[in-house]
User: Fold Flagellar M-ring protein FliF from uncultured Solirubrobacteraceae bacterium.
Amino acid sequence: MPAFAQNLSNLPARGKIILGATAVGILLLVFFMIRIAGAPSYSTLQSGLDPAQTGKMTAALDEAGIGYELQANGTALAVAKADSAKARIALAGQGLNTSGGAGDAPGFELFDEQKLGASDFQQKVTYQRALEGEIARNIGGVQGVQGAQVQLVMPEDDLFADEASPATAAVMLGNPGDTLETGAVKGIAQLTSNSVKGLKPTNVTITDATGQVLWPTGDGAGGAGGGTKQAAEERYARNVEAGINAMLSRTLGPDKAMVSVQADLNMDKTTRNELRYAKRGIPMTTETETERLRGQGGRAGGAAGTAGNIPNYSAGGGGNGNSNYRRETEKTNNALDKTVSKVDVAQGAVNRLNVALVLDKSVTGGATGTAA
Assistant:
């Protein structure tokens, strides 16, 4: 018998139990170390996601066969480091942005990594970066906005207010301006200005992915800061197309019909002034005046005149007649019923709408399509 086996057999029962437990513990430790070493290392692909965006990204990754991991209660998406490039390509193919967006911009979590002994200048730079990231995240929550980036210029405090430089901000959107809803540009400008001390909305510049300045050009009433005629027509046509295609898809089935819409809108900004008078006035004051005269006439007796000087002359009209005179006048002052109205005619009235419809052969019974 080998010496090791002989020594093991000579051990007491307690020693054998301790030795066995130690061997099992070592085996378990080696197993878990191998498991951890072989587990994939995940890297965060994008954070700060809303549930709808997370669902779209996970569906695209499942379709591409790429594993992922949800973090931060579903607001962050992580993939294996080896699959990071493939995941970005797959998401980009589905029109989902994963770079340069609000989710990648660091916010106030930068202060969680603040090093001890940082200078005042470093703290100011960190605060500015954190504020830019938080504003970009808020802008990213606006419907239609993708890949928002914010750059702030925050001047130093000056002793004299008239010599202080104003704060300014530049917002870069990763999407065209015609994808935004009405009034969204003005809302983004207000959101940015109210997030920075001393920043006025007029000192905010917003630019879309095509390089078009959306703010402060125009009044911000439209999706593109007032918007051009072409952008407004494309936005309106796209909304009409989406509604009709969704209805046809539910009625006929998917991929059975397709609609194309071309709109001609009136984008003239006009003001209409109207002045109207009522047919009848409104009585304000009424005045009534009454004049009455009553009297009895007497016979003339030998008065000097023609009757006494010319013989046989008979005066007519004289006599003992009675008088009863009455005059009544009524005067009414009417107020002028006048209506003055000023109407700002809204832009976007439809002048003409062309709709083209193409149907599948299975729907039309052999016809290739129809147009309207």
Summary: Residues 145 and 170 are 15 Å apart (CA to CA).
